[in-house]
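User: Please predict the structure of the protein below. I'd like the answer in C-alpha cell form so I can feed it into my own downstream comparison script.

Assistant: Understood. Taking the following sequence of 459 residues as input:
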Amino acid sequence: MKNKNTGTRLVVILLLCFSISYSQNTVKKSIEKPNIILIIADDLGWNDVGYHGSIIKTPNIDLLAKNGVQLDRFYVNPTCSPTRASLLTGRPSSRMGIVAPIGDRDQTKLPDSIPTLPKLLHQNNYQTALIGKWHLGLQLSSGPKAYGFDYSYGFLHGQLDQYTHLYKNGDKSWHRNGEFVEEKGHVTDLITNETIKWLSEIRDSNKSFFLQVAYSAPHFPLQEEQKWKEPYMNSIKDSSRRDYAAAVSHLDNSIGILLEKLKEQKLDKNTLVIFMSDNGAMENWDSKNEYNGVHPSNATLGDNKPLRDWKTSNYEGAVRVPCVMYWKDHLKSYKNSGYISVIDLLPSILFLAGDNKLPQTVEGINVWPAISQNKAIPNKEIYIRGHLQECLISKPWKIIRTRHLKGIPEDYELYNIEKDPEEKNNVWNQNEAIATQMKMALENQFKKDAKKVNNENIK
C-alpha cells in the first residue's frame, strides 16, 4: 500500500511539474514581443503601387497588401525630414521647428531632449537599427546613433547619387555607425545587403528588434540598370517615367529579398512588417543646379492620381500615401479606412512592445487595437504643417491654409474629403459654421509650433 501511495504521489508531482512548465511556456509565448520592420520608400506616389492599380509592377508590396491591412487613410508630412521626425517622436514635426527638408549644410537636427522611438524601445529590451536614409541631422554627430539606434548604416542627407553616394553638393553622406565609409554599388542593393547581413549576423537573437529600412528609391537621381527598365519598354513610352518605374521595381524586388530572409530565419511569424512612403510623389525634377549637371532632368516622375497635387503641398497627393501592415497569422486581410497619422505609429509600436507609458511630448494615439480587430478608429484631429501651407483634418473635413509674407492675407480652402477625395470643390464659402470651427482648431494647433518657425513674417 505504501509503494502504491508513493507511486501516486510521484505521478501527481510529475503532472504538476508538466502543468507548470506548459503554463509558463504558454504565457511566455502569449506575451512574446514582436519584431518590427518598418520599410520606407522615398517619394512613392499613391498610384505607384500595383495594389492601387498602377502600371508599375510591385508583386512583393502587393503581397503585403493582399495578406495584410491596407491603411487607406494614412497621413504623413508633405516632405521627408518632417515625416521622419514625426515618426520617431510621435508628434507633429513643426513642434520641433522641422517643416521642410533639411538641406545643404543646414545644422538643423532632432532636438536632443525629445524621447525617440528607438530610445523608448530600449527601455523595453529591444535592439534597434536604422539602415538607409536618415535626413534628421546632416553631420555624423547628429546621426541615427545619437538618437537611440544601436546600429546605423546608410546616408545622412535627403538624396544622393546612387553610385558615388555623394549628396547633390558633393558632400559625403554614406556612413556606418558614425563614420564615413567608401563602398561600391547601387544604393538600393547596398541597403538590402546590409539589412540581410544585420538580420543574419549582427542582431542579438535573444532580443526583439526594431529595424527601420529606409530606401532612397524612387527618389531622383534615377540610375537604374537596363534589367529594371526592360519590363516597361513597351508599356511606358516616357523615358523619365520608365526610369522611375524601374526604381520602384528595384525597390519591390529588394522587399521580396527581405521577406524571404525573414522566412528563412523563421522570423516571419513574429515580425510585424510595415511598409509606407514618406510623402507623395514629385511631378518632375530639374537637375541643372545639382550634381554638377551630370544627371538628366526628369520631366515625369511619380503618379498621385486620383489625388491632388504633388510633394511639398498639403493636398492629398502629398500627404496621403500607401501604407500596409502585415503580420503573418496575426492580422486579417482587409482595408482600414480609419484616419491614421504617422505620429500614431510610435504609440502603437510601443503598445506592441508592452509599454503603455507614453512621454508627455507624444501627441499620437495607439491605433493598434483598432487595426488588429478591424474596428473604427475614433475621430481625431490630424495636423500637418508644410513649407507655407498647413492643414487640419477632422473627418470628413479638411481645412488648408496657404500663408504668405506679412501683409498678404492667407488663403483658406475647405473640403469634404469623404465626398471629394480629389479636392476639386472648395466649400469654404458654403459652410460658414464648419469653416469657422476648423479655422479655430487649425490656429490652436499652429500656436503650439516652435517659435523659430512662427516668426513675425509668417502668420
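That's the full C-alpha cell string. Residues 99 and 386 are 5 Å apart (CA to CA).
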